[in-house]
Structures are given as structure tokens and as C-alpha cells.
Automatic annotation (TrEMBL):
It is an enzyme of class 5 (isomerase). This is UDP-galactopyranose mutase. It comes from Bifidobacterium santillanense. The gene is glf. The lineage of its organism: Bacteria, Bacillati, Actinomycetota, Actinomycetes, Bifidobacteriales. Its cofactor is FAD. It comes from the Bacteria. The keyword Signal does not apply. One of its GO terms (molecular function) is UDP-galactopyranose mutase activity.
Length: 387
């Protein structure tokens, strides 16, 4: 095989960003492989034939950043809509705005508290466990925001996320539970926010629209019957950027890093709009899923292209990931962190392989973080390998 200058394992945002930079700055010939049948990694989306909605295949993806370098970079490849993320929650048959804010509080208590009054009330309710050092998540939640709001909006939702009673979960899972004492229910606080105008996949295709970049899908780096496998590339000394799971790279020899995953159940309604918002959380235990995503509501500007009287919703179920599941959220206990540190040491000793992205570095990264770390990894680690 005539190898290219650089092989990238994984066509997610980390891999695509490094590929784009390698061509732009070094004129490199880059080959990207991905085991999936599409580019974009977990940020991939497709247009639903029946409804016209853009479905985010691995769960709702909202772009937001305060990083100017990243914002300038992504705007080279796509325009963004003026979408602003807002989430609502159904509790006990009533819909409330999230994150918990003065609107939530006044609706919940049926009052017209001022910010100062609401703050005093929550402090008083949180005082129930004052002076204690909560060891489990349940007590910690009560100590942070008081029992009434904790039990209404956090307790059962958290139990569904972890499939564990919060009284059995370590307090360390939550550091804070933000409560806003005004009516601001804008979900993100970043300077820039929006959704790619023609969809995520069109954005990603433009990043690698260059004859020096080739992409091969349905190819596993560890499959030794295909030429771009780990052993062959190592033997040929070809620089590799690896964005798959770091424990898999080393055959899990030190043990498995732990992740949570998410399952989706698709539901279709013969209505124009089922929830009236893109994300509806379900705070109670009687609904088995954590939240529902109604994709058409992410892009109200596309109203004319949607099929009237049809909408598609994905119900989201959260659970621990087994080997072979899609790893989504690193669990990140102290034990996991220590294990990752040992894998990272081995990774650093692989001379011509750069580990990156959320799987390669066992980190929860938003898209803007992944792009930022990829730009830096290109400069500091990949460029020197391209000599
Ligand atoms: P990935 O996108 O996971 O790409 C890695 C690629 O490597 C995959 O395509 C995989 O198939 C491939 N691969 C792995 N092993 C192999 C192998 N052996 N051979 C070949 N290919 C392989 N970010 C936001 O900014 N906003 C959000 O709202 C948001 N919501 C999210 C919701 C969910 C449910 C999840 C899971 C993530 C969310 N994110 C969000 C984060 C976002 O998905 C990530 O930041 C981004 O996708 C990470 O890119 P990556 O390239 O590091 O990894
Ligand atoms: Na390395």
C-alpha cells in the first residue's frame, strides 16, 4: 500500500479538524477511516424523509461557544441560525421552565416572590441539612436547593439518568445545582450560539472538501485484514491520529474505563407540533425516559419544508454502557481517573500516534472544546510528525 502522510482514525469533529489543518498548513495527504457508515461522529445528523426534520442521530446537539478562535473557525464552513436553547420540564402534570429560575420557583409555589424573597426561601429550605457533610447525592441535593425543588426537579430525573436511587449515589456527582433568581431561562451562557444552517453533516462535508483528503467508512482500525490497521501503520511508520477509545487501543489490558450511554425510542405523532419546544424533560418517575427531543423545533426557520401533520420525537433513556455500547458520558470516578492516567502514560509512549477527542482522552467535551483541542493538538503534536 502507498500510504498517505497522515491517517486519522475517526471522522468525528476532532479527526475532521486535524485533517483540515494538516491540508491547510502542511499540504499533507490525509486518509480518514471510520468504523461507522457516516462522517461527523456523534454530532452527525440526517434529514428524516417523512417529516423533513433534521434528526441528531446520537442525541440533541446544540452548538455554543465563548471561544473566539473556535467561533471564527466554524464560521468558515457553515452559517449558524439564531437558535437559542431553552428546556422545559413536566412535573406532576405541569410544565415548568428550566434551569430552575424565578419563573420555575413562582410557578411551583404559586407565588410572586421577588428575587430576594425567593433567595431567602431557598436558603431557608436548604437549611434543613445545614452543618452536615452529605455523603450521598440525595442529601447533597437537599442541602444545595432545599427539599421541595430538589424532589420535584432533580431527584427522580437523576435516578433515571443513573438507574440508581440518589441515596445510593456519591454526593461527588453534583458540585452545584444552579438556581437563577431572575426569569432568564436561556440554557447556555456562551457568547455565541446557533445551529448549522444547512445541518451538521453539510458543515462537516465542507471541512474536508479537498482532493488531498480521502474518507473510507465502515473500516475498523483494529481489523488486520484492511491496510489501514494499527499494526501495518505502525510498521510503516505512518503518523496516526487516533480518536477511538483509549482502553480499546491497548486491548483493555489495564481494565475498562466506565461510561454511561443513551438509548433512543422513536415516536411519531400525526400533529404539526407535539411539545411546542425542542426538549421536554420529564422530572417524575412515572415516565421511564429522562427527556424527549422534538427535532423539528430546533429549526423553526425550516417550517416551509416540514410535512404538515407529522412530527418525530425521540425519547431518551440513560444507562451504564457495556463494552460494545456507544460510550457517551465518562463516569469519571476517582478510580476511572486513575485508570485513565495509566493509559495516558502508555499513549504518550506511542511515538507516532496522537490520541485525541472525547474517546481518546476519556473526557466529556462539547463540540467547541473538541475543535479547540484539535486545533492545539494539530499545532503541538501532529504538525511535528509531518516534518
Ligand atoms: P466522536 O464524535 O465520538 O468521533 C469519534 C469517531 O471515531 C466515531 O465516529 C467512531 O465511530 C470512530 N471510531 C472509534 N473507534 C474506531 C475504530 N476502531 N476504527 C475506526 N473508527 C473508529 N456537544 C455540544 O457542543 N453540544 C451539545 O449539545 C452536545 N450534546 C451531546 C449529546 C450527547 C448524547 C453526546 C454523546 C454528546 C454531545 N455533545 C455535545 C458532544 C459532542 O458529541 C462531542 O464533543 C463530539 O462529537 C466529539 O467529537 P470526537 O471527534 O472527539 O468524537
Ligand atoms: Na503519542
Amino acid at each position: 500500500t502507498q500510504y498517505p502522510d497522515l491517517v486519522i482514525v475517526g471522522a468525528g469533529l476532532f479527526g475532521l479538524t486535524v485533517a483540515q489543518q494538516a491540508v491547510e498548513h502542511a499540504g499533507a495527504r490525509v486518509h480518514i477511516i471510520d468504523v461507522r457508515d457516516h462522517i461527523g461522529g456523534n454530532a452527525y445528523s440526517y434529514f428524516d424523509k417523512e417529516t423533513g426534520a433534521e434528526i441528531h442521530k446520537y442525541g440533541a446537539h446544540l452548538f455554543h461557544t465563548s471561544n473566539e478562535r473556535v467561533w471564527k473557525y466554524v464560521n468558515r464552513f457553515t452559517e449558524f441560525t439564531n437558535y437559542v436553547h431553552r428546556v422545559y420540564a413536566t412535573h406532576d402534570g405541569v410544565v415548568y421552565p428550566l434551569p430552575i429560575n424565578l419563573g420555575t420557583i413562582n410557578q411551583f409555589f404559586g407565588k410572586a416572590y421577588t428575587p430576594a424573597e425567593a433567595k431567602a426561601l431557598i436558603e431557608e429550605q436548604a437549611g434543613e441539612l445545614a452543618g452536615t457533610d452529605p455523603q450521598n447525592l440525595n442529601d447533597k441535593g437537599i442541602q444545595l436547593i432545599g427539599r421541595p425543588l430538589y424532589e420535584a426537579f432533580i431527584k427522580n430525573y437523576t435516578a433515571k439518568q443513573w438507574q440508581t436511587d440518589p441515596a445510593e449515589l456519591p454526593a461527588s456527582i453534583i458540585k452545584r445545582l444552579p438556581v437563577r433568581f431572575n426569569y432568564d431561562n436561556r440554557y447556555f451562557k456562551d457568547t455565541w450560539e446557533g445551529l448549522p444552517k444547512d445541518g451538521y453533516t453539510a458543515w462537516f462535508e465542507r471541512m474536508i472538501d479537498d482532493p488531498r483528503i480521502t474518507v473510507e467508512l465502515g473500516v475498523d482500525f483494529f481489523d488486520e485484514t484492511q491496510p489501514y490497521n494499527r499494526k501495518a501503520l505502525q510498521a510503516a511508520g505512518v503518523p496516526v491520529v487516533y480518536t477511538g477509545p483509549i482502553d480499546r487501543y491497548f486491548d483493555y489490558e489495564l481494565g475498562d474505563l466506565k461510561w454511561r450511554t443513551v438509548d433512543f425510542k422513536e415516536v411519531r405523532y400525526a400533529e404539526d407540533d407535539h411539545f411546542g419546544c425542542p426538549v421536554m424533560n420529564f422530572s417524575d418517575s412515572d415516565v421511564p425516559y429522562t427527556r424527549a427531543i422534538e427535532f423539528r423545533n430546533f429549526n423553526p426557520e425550516r417550517a416551509d419544508s416540514y410535512t404538515p401533520g407529522r412530527t418525530v420525537v425521540w425519547e431518551e433513556y440513560s444507562r451504564f454502557a457495556e463494552r460494545g455500547d456507544e460510550p457517551y458520558y465518562p463516569i469519571n470516578t476517582d478510580e476511572d481517573k486513575a485508570l485513565y492516567a495509566r493509559y495516558a502514560e502508555k499513549a504518550a509512549a506511542e511515538p507516532r500516534t496522537v490520541f485525541g477527542g472525547r474517546l481518546g482522552t476519556y473526557k466529556y467535551y462539547d463540540m467547541h472544546n473538541v475543535i479547540d483541542t484539535a486545533l492545539t493538538a494539530y499545532e503541538e503534536q501532529v504538525a511535528p510528525l509531518l516534518g
